[in-house]
Amino acid sequence: MLKNKAFVRKTKRGTVIKVVKEHYLRDDIYCEVATCTKCPSSLNAVTTPSTTKLVPSPHHIVPDTNVLYHQIDVLEHAAFTDVIILQTVLQELKHRSNAVYARARTMISDPKRRFIVFCNEHHRDTYVERRADESPNDRNDRAIRTAVAWYNMHLDGKPQAVLITDDADNRRKAEVDKIPAYSTQQYVASMQGHPDLVDMIAAVEDSNIAAEERFAYPEHLSNSQIAAGIRSGAFFQGKLSISQNNYLEGSVFAQVDKEERTVMIIGRKDLNRGIHGDIVALQMLPESQWKRPVGVILEEEQIEGQKDEDEEEKAEESKMDVENGAANETVPTAKIVGIIKRNWRPFCGTIEKASVSSAASGLTSQQSVFFWAMDKKIPKIRIRTRQAENLVGRRIIVAIDGWVRNSLFPSGHFVRTLGEVGDRATETEVVLLEHDVPFAPFSSSVLSFLPAEGEDWIVQPEHLAGRIDFRHLDVCSIDPPGCTDIDDALHCRQLPNGNLEVGVHIADVSHFVKPENAMDMEARRRGTTVYLVNKRIDMLPSLLGTNLCSLRSNVDRLAFSCIWEMKPDATVVNVKYTKSVIRSKASLTYDEAQMRLDDSKLNDPVTQGIKALNQLAKKLRANRMEAGALTLASPEVRFKLEEDQQDPVDVELKELKDTNALVEEFMLLANIWVAKKVYEAFPESSMLRRHPKPPAANFESLQKAVGELGITLDVTTSRALADSLNNATTTDPYINKLIRILTTRCMMQAVYFCSGTVPESDFWHYGLATNIYTHFTSPIRRYSDLVVHRLLSVAIGYEKAYTSDLVSKEKLSELSDVLNYRHRMAQQASRSSVELFTNMFFKEKLLQEDAYVIRVLKNGFSVLIPRYGIEGYVYASLNDSKDSSEPSPFVYDGEKNRLIAGTVEIKLFAKCSVCVFVEEAGGAARRSKLVVRLCEPWVPGVSVRLDDIRVAREQDQLEEKSGKVVKKAKRV
Questions:
Q1: N or C: which terminal CB in the chain sees fewer CB atoms within 10 Å?
Q2: pTM of the entire predicted model
Q3: Do the two domains 223-341 and 843-961 of this chain adopt the same fold?
Q4: Domain spanning 843-961: CATH 1.10.3720.10
């Protein structure tokens, strides 16, 4: 049966065209129920229907769109099998959320779950036309009810089809049509053996908030009002970023009045239920209402005694106002008037112990408790659960359901438990989940694209077509100790004309990972290998990453080589790019290579090559420095782990040797020259990497601070900044390094981009002082490099056929955004892993160490401890920011940016002595955290003695063991 749909639409050029769509209705779409005698059986047939107390007979459930959208966490539970998903529901879901739609498709594709899709929109008996007086939503609800009714008629009620909908009106209409229909709450409560499922139900409308509006946020504007306001210029939009230091202070970088600027949002009501990462609509406040940045560390506190929300809100806003008044200058300020797109995701964290009532025990009664997300930028979340006492002290996952205007906090629901707080495996999983790192094992479909020979794969003659054989060269690799995914190798040899031949050989991953197959798509999804302290999350299966692609010594390996002819002064005479085969003569660590450099008696070919490379590297580096490249610094640490328990037994700063610089120089050189080649071949569709010039405003506070040391930082160009840093010397050598560390933090983030989307003048890489750059040298661990390999392969004529996506400006631009996100998340996960192991290392330790002040705020200051390369925050009073009853002895001087107490001044670069220990997670603590207290200089009421801290901690431990409830006040 054929139906025609005709309508007119207006094109971008203003012309009106008639569109006719043909809609085929069929009789041969089967129900897929195994017991059905009217339809052929299917391999994916629904079997073993469910039974519950509510519906004791065998049945299949049919969720509507809202249930699939809001209750996806419930449906993902293993208790739900044999579910019928209608085409109407899937189409609506895809329109509402690609992320939830992808989760639904994953369930459907899992044969163990036995989820099926019924194409009701193409079945003659289940398709319904929209009535003239009917909204699209009402039509879709009717289509869903029609499909459920058809199933019950088609199967004669054996098994039965049951509609699950949280829409009361939809259930009422279903009852009129004699269709069994229940809410998610009703159905789940009747399921046997899964009491935890009740806690997972999303509260779409939170009825637990008191109706009277003792506190209320401003109403959000509708989508149409927001769109009209943005068009007229009354509103603007941007991505909300909540301060890491103050949960009541946010900012948006957006275009306002045709100028890009950072706009602040200060205070709970102006933030108006915006959550970090949301796309929000904002209205600029009049200049007379602009506010001052608070400039304090302000962390959300636990509610003691379940304080009323209006009281808590008044206390917080009062504190904000008092502290706000101490600042010097106002900044452009706005308020959120609506939410354009939520960035909600499942959050890892802990239940607030103080919010749990011991009276409501067992699994029979729910209680409302608060959940702390690990991310300090996320507000407390109210959830209702039957297992509150069991969840205290455990890491759990919670999803946000909504945020009504008369509640200080959003409401959500419990998803699942991860494990005990403090457990190494649990905390590592939290790091990965919080930073959206894909870490599930590679699927069978991905592994199916590995070479059939497995570890026995070797280079065959047919692999050499189009490649140059470099197996006779003295190639070697230089990597960190324990490195198994060796991306790169080097060689250098003298040419008859007195010049030098230098080769950078990169693992030819593109030979094994072909575009658009399952392995390629998974590598693209992961984006990069993620390095944690105790493990590595690979981008590619280990057979490739640590074996077949890894350039290990004494085995033949396929490579992509960049070969230069250089003069002894490191001037490049010519360059060629080629696919190759190599046989590395040595896999060296940095230390082993350094020993060869330092030993004048060693003269074997590999060592000679390393020594020649080192001489060239120093000249290349000098040339880069002359061009304005920056030498920056960061306090990177390395942990020594016990082999069995993987517990940290020592921590040390990473030491850079000449061989580190040697490898770095030639990787940079390869990346620059490959960027030139691919851009020459694909000026509109090259994947490049740029580092934008930081605005001068980023350096203002640092320039002011170093000025007191008699140092001037010129930031007009990268060359001027590099010269300034080279001339920035003090009597304390560590301060010289500290200036470089703080300069690094003033920089912008380097990003991938598609060449056709950015003017060539903006290709500039500020830190490296080069006008073009890309990533080519690490295809085992970065997907961007794999894309560049494919582009270069086409550019040199090795690859004749390639997919259109490879040279699509739009596709490469989208991919660049994804890879930038993955790269950023990988960096943050690595830092969080270091923080986790730092806390593990300092557990049970109490140390006093020298430190340097690196930031001053109104209620304290940040310090960097050189010995361990770690940072901590020292509050300006012993009771830190949570207790305003005892005023701090420090007075904040905003003009000079320092804290003053009598003769003691705390300012940037000031040296001090601090004691360091770990406060264990538990109670209100979201995670174990490093606590830093001032020892010297001595300030009464702030400074502490190590022995006093030790006695106080021992007393706390004794009281906890005796079962007393202790408020952990600082006793010293």
A1: N
A2: 0.85
A3: yes
A4: no
